[in-house]
Amino acid sequence: MNAQQDTDRSPITFTIDKAERIQTDTINRKNLGYAALSKIYHELGLHTFLNNRQHHTKNDHDTNSIMKLFVFARLLYPAFKKKTYDNKGLFFEKTDFSLDVSMAVYLFLISIM
User: Fold this and answer.
1) Which among 11, 23, 60, 76 is least surrounded, fewest beta carbons within 10 Å?
2) Could you give the CA distance from residue 101 to residue 54 in angstroms, rounded to a whole number?
3) What domain of life (predicted)?
């Protein structure tokens, strides 16, 4: 037990390649401020509701992840749907979907309301 604690406290070393450059076309900054919004989202059971609704459709997209993007981005960065989609890299959520898919999910969400 003491040996494990000693190894857990040992310093961590890492190396940085001085020649490596940060790509200019990537978003390197992430927003952690939506953690409180995520807690409320889950307490309201929106994820369960959307997952249950999605099971009864032929829709194979992750409706819950796209809805979370819409909710969090619209609250933190109010904008139109296209700009909301463009800001998807600011979040840690799964955002590997296209703009067309997000619009299709948006129409699905309207239909179930």
Assistant:
1) 11
2) 14
3) Bacteria
Q: Which two tokens stand for residue 76?
A: 């933190």
In 15-78, alpha helices (H): 35-43, 46-55, 63-76
Amino acid type, 89: G
| pTM reported for the whole predicted model | 0.62
CA dist., res. 54 & res. 95, Å (int):
18
Q: Is 30 helix (H, G, I), strand (E, B) or coil?
A: coil
CA 18 vs. chain centroid, Å, equals 31
Per-residue tokens: 40: 């409320």
How many whole angstroms separate alpha carbon 93 and alpha carbon 63? 12
Q: What is the C-alpha separation between 106 and 70, in angstroms, rounded?
A: 9
Domain ranges for the chain: 30-112
pLDDT in tens, 45-71: 998 988 888 887 777 778 888 888 888
Task: Read off the amino acid at residue 77.
Answer: Y
